[in-house]
């Protein structure tokens, strides 16, 4: 598979993919470990208030960013593809202004409405100060997001990594300083102290990373021609035509997601659960199990981001051959990976749940969600492919339909069926969104996906690679750590996929070889009689 990806995407893509993926995994692991530590310091009550504050912060982030990253990626990619580098400075300048406006608007709304939100929505006045602290990072978040999109389009992945590392490290250092030094023994005196430490770290991280992103861009823009080819109205119109449709979709989805989050515990209580039971079930499912299900997706998250400019460039050049090649390889790589993850969750759900959370309930939830993994992961990749093909409006419509269906099912189904209904909603939503996205992508790209190559072989190989070590360890060493067992399964699967790559490579080589060349060594006549 690695050989195939390098052949299709070129060495530059392969290198960017490896570096970006490794950095994402390392940062994700680092953040997870620190989150466990900070949770113990702040306490469950403090983390509960923080989660409520964050539920307001997420929609504010959606408004602040307003999909400027998608617009900057597409516009800069188009400029590079058409060799119009004289427009790049103008594009990024307008993205900067767009980001500053929406970021400032979002910041102002959170600041002025912090008190009514805390009193009448969160119903806790302790949230007022944290909300007014965290909102200061919103303009910087938006500006950095636009520059991230430009760096991706310019294939300057190292700059995006530097910005992301700066953000995460700054957050950790500021939180650590406030918790251990600034507040110290006073941390437990007031619940607000711990929450302010968390939100101040978040705001500081967004601010410092934005400054770093601007500095990196100031060095990069020296490579661009002066802004002689830039038409202000034309670029602004294209920027708005790309970003606003996606932004409106994000606004609607964010609002529907908030409403759904509020209605889920209400539905559980109507079903007969007590409030602690409802929060416990929801917390276990969404707060503990769902992150485990999506953690392996970190490995393909960078892949999803990098294929947007690849597809956008091919789309601008109307390179049908490259569009088909990138699309088929993207789908195959995603399914090869996700089928293996699905099998791991199915076979090792029990030891994973017990090892991570000491919970048999978590094990059951992991196994229940495992069959959805391939479609969940593939849906994310297909969305990126659609954005590269200028299909962000299609993605917007599908996401809105999915959100509306989820809300309706939650409102009418949960009071009668409880958690079983919520699981049903998850399945229906995943199947609906994934099916609509994939169907639309196949129509737009007009490609033919080899079913046997991208579905049957990965599924069979994954099942074999996981089943064999699972049975071996069950008989020979049942007490072995679960992560050792998973590692062995991954090595077996890698060997199977590697042998298949070699087989396909040889088959392709022999098919292209002239017939005379293939048999010449077998028909050499002796020189003498």
Quick tags:
18 helices; 0% strand; mainly alpha; single chain
Break the fold down into its secondary structure elements and pairings:
Elements: H1 2-65, H2 68-81, H3 88-121, H4 128-134, H5 138-153, H6 157-183, H7 191-220, H8 232-271, H9 275-294, H10 298-316, H11 320-357, H12 360-369, H13 373-388, H14 392-417, H15 419-445, H16 451-476, H17 482-512, H18 515-519
Helix pairs in contact: 1-3, 1-5, 1-6, 1-7, 1-8, 1-10, 1-11, 2-3, 2-5, 2-8, 2-10, 3-4, 3-5, 3-8, 4-7, 5-6, 5-7, 6-7, 8-9, 8-14, 9-12, 10-11, 10-13, 11-12, 11-13, 11-16, 11-17, 13-15, 14-15, 16-17
Name the helix and strand elements from N-terminus to C-terminus, one letter apiece: HHHHHHHHHHHHHHHHHH
Largest sheet: none
- CA-CA gap between termini: 51 Å
Rg on CA atoms, Å: 25 Å
**Shape call:** globular
Helical residues, percent: over 70%
Counting DSSP E segments of at least 2 residues, the number of strands comes to: 0
Structural class: mainly alpha
What do these coordinates show?
With 529 residues, the chain is mostly helical. It has a domain at 38-230. The chain contains 18 helices and no strands. Helix 1 crosses helix 10 and helix 5 (138-153) packs antiparallel against helix 6. The termini are far apart. Mean pLDDT is 80; it is low at 1-10 and 515-529.
Q: How would you summarize this macromolecular structure in one to three sentences?
A:
This protein is mainly alpha-helical and 529 residues long.
